């Protein structure tokens, strides 16, 4: 066809005939709604089953790794153990009755070992672990459990062990004849607290202990009720604590304060005195426990063990007759010295302890008496003696009730050089 101008007419492209698409493969069937729901359900089930299989495989892999690790450690190492030489020094306490597990727990809490079980395992088969004594030990933090066992079983690592011999007093004393110094309880405590921690050497100073004894409230120091009145009556004199720290072996924490140290010692000593029968015996004697403690200290200083019970009887006999005791040990006590023969001037000094001028017992004990001395104070020997004197260097002591006989015994002592004064 052509238009009026003789041109051929061209149809627009959208009016041209299009080829129909040809389907590939077999013709699809249309699914019903129910079929589509069933198909979707099967797909979900396949996904859940696949996830479960993957989860089981993960658990199996983790379990294999864990069991393999346990097997590796059981064969080649200790689980949860530190390595190396440690980080810093630390003091730990082993208490009476602690088991290996309890010690391990203490070590773990202080950061010494990684786990309690590591320590217990390291201690297995080590006979020395049974020899560990209650007390304080210097160890290091973050050390292998085997190293911790070795340190605790080495006596060199024990610190804070305090030994107070019988008859010591709080202050150092000097022998007038020999000039020898006997260390007092404050000095002994100070030395027992000395320890090297991370290269620094430290001790609790004896003067700091003395200052605490003077200024602290007696209740804060553990002073028992039966001693509270006499102790408070001494005011700020540090000797008010005399006799309240018993002789024996004690464990003290070198890192504790002076007050904590004194309190722990007095509290433990009070318990020891009670267990020894001091309170019951005092009631039987119609005395206070503190008075019995004073008598025990006099017995300790005035006699040798074989004469303890006799000297105790002399004390009670003189008190019963309202006589002054006239013991040179009570003269020497506040002077911090040892001397058999005191001077007239010393015996005339008015002090809370001088029994030449003070009636009755001294104001406080004059030392820490031994158990035998306390036993003698509690059960004195039968006798009517009022006087005694040591007459030779072997310690022979003569007892009598007759004053003239006593003077004769004193002459024997002088001839043997026992009563010679160094001044």
TrEMBL record:
EC number: 4.2.2.29
Gene name of the encoded protein: mltG
Membrane topology classification: Single-pass membrane protein
Organism (species): Mycolicibacterium hassiacum (strain DSM 44199 / CIP 105218 / JCM 12690 / 3849) (Mycobacterium hassiacum)
GO biological process: cell wall organization; peptidoglycan biosynthetic process
Catalytic reaction equation(s): a peptidoglycan chain = a peptidoglycan chain with N-acetyl-1,6-anhydromuramyl-[peptide] at the reducing end + a peptidoglycan chain with N-acetylglucosamine at the non-reducing end
Name of the top EC class for this enzyme: lyase
Predominant place of localization: membrane
Residues the record marks as site: Important for catalytic activity: 302
InterPro entries given in the database record: MLTG-like
GO MF annotation terms: lytic endotransglycosylase activity
Transmembrane segments: 48-72
Subcellular location: Cell membrane
One GO cellular component term: plasma membrane
Keyword Transmembrane helix: yes
Keyword annotations: Cell membrane, Cell wall biogenesis/degradation, Lyase, Membrane, Transmembrane, Transmembrane helix
Family the UniProt entry places it in: Belongs to the transglycosylase MltG family.
Organism taxonomic ancestry: Bacteria, Bacillati, Actinomycetota, Actinomycetes, Mycobacteriales
Primary role: Functions as a peptidoglycan terminase that cleaves nascent peptidoglycan strands endolytically to terminate their elongation.
Protein name: Endolytic murein transglycosylase
